[in-house]
Write a structure and sequence with these properties.
alpha/beta, Rossmann fold, 2 domains, six-stranded parallel beta sheet, three-stranded parallel beta sheet, 10 helices, 11 strands, 41% helix, globular, binds NADPH dihydro-nicotinamide-adenine-dinucleotide phosphate
Amino acid sequence: MAAEIIDGRALGAALRARVADEAARLAAAGVVPGLAVVLVGEEPASRVYVASKRRATLEAGMASFEHRLPAGTDAADLLSLIARLNADPAVHGILVQLPLPAHLDAAAVIHAIDPAKDVDGFHISNAGRLATGQMALVPCTPLGCLMLLRHRLGSLAGAEAVVVGRSNIVGKPMAQLLLREDATVTIAHSRSRDLPAVCRRAEILVAAVGRAELIRGDWIRPGATVIDVGINRVAGADGTARLVGDVHFASAAEVAGAITPVPGGVGPMTIACLLANTLTAAARAHGLPEPEGLTG
Ligand code: NDP
């Protein structure tokens, strides 16, 4: 294997430690950063995510407010909870765990969140701010990817970057962040012609597709830095489930200069960036200096 493994677990732990230090500094100034997480329904994966967010929030010395609502909650009740959280000065960040039950309109719910508390960075105001180069709260997963890229490469200026995937939560904001870093950015998607050839151009390749091991080693430019956002559950040889990325790790690692593993790459950065966004939101809310380097 030629590639350096980008250790998201170690870098995520370091970021969480930094956030905890900064949170202690804010607490000393009388501000305890607070994150409210809203979970509607009993989806098992969502319950696990919410529990791990709560644990990480408390470990970072922040306040955690958890709101679990029954699956049948109607839009009016959910929106009134969000209005209360928007008005609560102890809450600096609000996250509504997705997916919501089908009868609820996720876009309407997200847009009800005060953009200054939108630590997921999904509000149209934050998306627009990112796209127009203004101060924003940036979606956690692409922010984490950017930090991994910076760690490996330093400056990204002039680099040929390809993002595979154009979702609002990963692909598009990732491309915006790379553009902000002065990379030359291509966004590929399911209708792109000759995807292997597009990928082969990339010095920086970010895969956010949701297709197990789609991107093979012979799609990778030698020496490229590969960030694999995908989390796909597949059956292993012995029938047990295992997680794989959107990149075929073994063949890609023969060619790439550096690559993130799945698990242990992007995932741990996502939750660390959620804490970083909460800290940033708390500092901004109180007009305190923002810790540097946490907003990408
Ligand atoms: P979406 O399903 O919203 O978007 C997938 C994108 O990939 C779409 O733009 C789609 O194109 C494109 N795509 C699908 N199939 C192909 C193909 N065969 N060739 C080229 N492009 C294709 O997914 P998300 O962005 O939400 O997530 C992507 C992956 O990242 C998933 O595996 C998800 O689990 C993972 N993820 C991981 C996180 C983490 O913390 N590590 C956080 C968030 C997501 P089109 O627009 O044309 O349909």
